[in-house]
Design a protein that fits this description.
Elements (H helix, E strand, L loop, with lengths): L11 H11 L4 E3 L18 E5 L7 H12 L5 E5 L1 H12 L1 H10 L3 H16 L1 E4 L3 E3 L14 E6 L5 E2 L3 E4 L4 H15 L7 H4 L2 H19 L3 H6 E5 L7 E3 L25
Parallel strand pairs: 1-9, 2-3, 2-4, 6-9
Antiparallel strand pairs: 4-8, 5-10, 6-7, 6-8
Helix pairs in contact: 1-8, 3-4, 3-5, 5-6, 6-8
């Protein structure tokens, strides 16, 4: 799997997101978007909720969060992957090359979680959610509308970005494939390593999505397929099912990449 064909200038695509959102190139979801009759997500999305914690014994606050997610999503299979399980999945489904990137280039647990969720969702589909949330209702409530193959959230900021902490998609989504391609580019290109957010996190999701948008425009002359396949929701929609929570692990270097001493030449690892 290689990178998208169009050279669009890399990181500056993040700064173009707001412009393209306002121009109507994306199909946006808001409180006014009508739900389905059944009030459930589309049938093509597997009824699985995927989470990641780096070891087999999450701390108490994380366990509480996981239990709330399970209790509020009856009818879903909930799967918690640890770092070893995630590695095994990548090796079994993508082979040694991508597994080597996971082992050697994903030098922080947050990067492993970022990389794994994209690999898993591409192969299996379903719902991925970060575990630092206080879930109070079904995750269906965030995206219970018809006809999408991939649902992402965006956050306005400087720059705005497409988030990666809550992703819903069908298997083999071209959006997720483009994101995985972009992460591979970041992890293998000889350049100075900046930060986790850019290399495997929301910036990578944003750039991968924007590259596919440009590819659709350049090679197909329209973006109707792209707009039908991808729905992007405003960040506040998550309040329908959960609120963010601050957990103790964020105060450690193992749990918070901002506190971790990151290498400057990731591509040499």
């Amino acid at each position: 799997m290689g990178p998208a064909k169009i050279n669009t200038g890399g990181g500056h695509l993040v700064w173009k997101l707001t412009q393209y959102l306002k121009a109507g190139h994306f199909s946006l979801v808001s409180d006014e978007t009508p739900p389905t009759i059944t009030n459930k997500i589309p049938h093509n999305i597997p009824k699985k909720i995927i989470m990641f914690w780096h070891d087999k014994n999450p701390p108490h606050d994380v366990q509480v969060s996981i239990e709330k997610i399970k209790q509020n999503n009856v009818g879903y299979q909930t799967i918690l992957f640890d770092a070893e399980m995630a590695r095994d999945y990548i090796y079994d489904h993508y082979g040694a090359t991508l597994c080597n990137l996971y082992d050697r280039r994903c030098i922080h647990k947050a990067m492993q979680a970022d990389f794994f969720r994209i690999c898993y969702l591409l192969g299996e589909g379903g719902i991925y959610t970060d575990i630092d949330i206080d879930c109070h209702a079904s995750l269906d409530n965030i995206c219970n509308f018809q006809d999408f193959g991939c649902f992402l959230l965006y956050t306005f900021g400087s720059p705005s970005c497409i988030d990666n902490d809550f992703i819903v998609c069908e298997p083999n989504s071209p959006i997720i494939l483009s994101v995985l391609n972009q992460i591979q580019v970041h992890l293998t290109t000889p350049q100075r390593f900046t930060n986790v957010w850019e290399y495997t996190g929301p910036a990578a999701v944003t750039i991968g999505t924007m590259r596919l948008l440009f590819e659709q425009i350049a090679y197909h002359g329209n973006i109707e397929y792209f707009k039908k396949h991808l729905k992007i929701g405003e960040r506040f929609l998550t309040a329908r099912a959960f609120h963010g929570a601050t957990f103790e692990y964020k105060n450690t270097s193992e749990g918070n990449w901002k506190k971790y001493r990151l290498p400057s030449k990731l591509y040499e690892l």
